[in-house]
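call fold(seq) -> tokens
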Amino acid sequence: MTHSLFDTPFIAAPMAGGTSTPALVQAVQSGGGLGFLAAGYKSPAAMAAEIAAARAMGIRFGMNVFVPDMAQLSPTPAARARLEAYRTELEAEAARYGVAVPALRFDDDDAWQDKIDALIADPVEFVSFVFGLPGRSVVKALQKAGTAVISSVTSVAEALAAAEEGPDALAVQHSSAGGHTAAFLAGDAGGPGSGTRSTRTTAGLVAQVRTAVDLPLIAAGAIMDSSALREVLAAGAAAAQVGTALVRTEESGARQPHKDALGDPRYTGTAMTRAFTGRFARSLVNEFVRDHQDAPEGYPAIHHLTAPIRAAASAAGDSDRLNLWAGTGWRSAKEGSAEDVVRDFLSGL
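ret:
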């Protein structure tokens, strides 16, 4: 049954890097769903501008915020040496396009406090968090401002930790989901052998979490059609969070080579990789993924190292050096309007 918090079983996942747009959220709402915008990689001013644009459209929406990992911003000498070695490794990739690999930086917390302050001062209906827990004081301050708070988890252990902070709901992400893993506890890091892989399906993970916490759950991971949506709802989810199924739509802000790659038969699989950002994320397996299988941990330091390469690859239409985020069900992603995609999902319920 759809939870009254959302009033729909379909939620468009927040996809940072430009994929989630106010136009995409508007189309999702027209189809009967609820959309999220993504604050990740944006300045607080850019986040505020997107909020203003969505409000001008008169649509419901949520905003997703990255939780910084302070350990990654203060790496050990050994970790720093591994990152310097990877920076040297990337120089050959950069040379393909005549761009430079920037110096390592460890000062980017994604403007965490400024974004939280802005969202408390000018609240939106929903705020979701990923890559960690925001802290009880942040949760309570947002709720006091009138915002419903959603924490992202990938295991029962993470769900129990998140529930202690008192959020309004949990987004439960399975390892089959595209893009970055939301995992934040040791053992659930999202890579090979992680805890999330012990549960074979998204519905199975939802059922496990459902028995552990008494909060509305949003299922995420390989939900590509109404059949998969019905399965996670039957397992106890209040709604499903859908990302990959929307990437190719006309309202999506994803790079065109990324959209095209999801329909390109030469791509035959996905893998969890740290090659692009230093944090495990599920991508189509392209040359960059294959060539950098031993990329070290280091987010967002590696994100900044590869940014010029990815931008140049996009400009050249070279999908083999782009982060082609995709869930395991990517073959079902359709072109056309997001409104039609959402209607297709909901018509089968």
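The chain has two domains: 1-68+109-251+331-349, 71-108+268-323.
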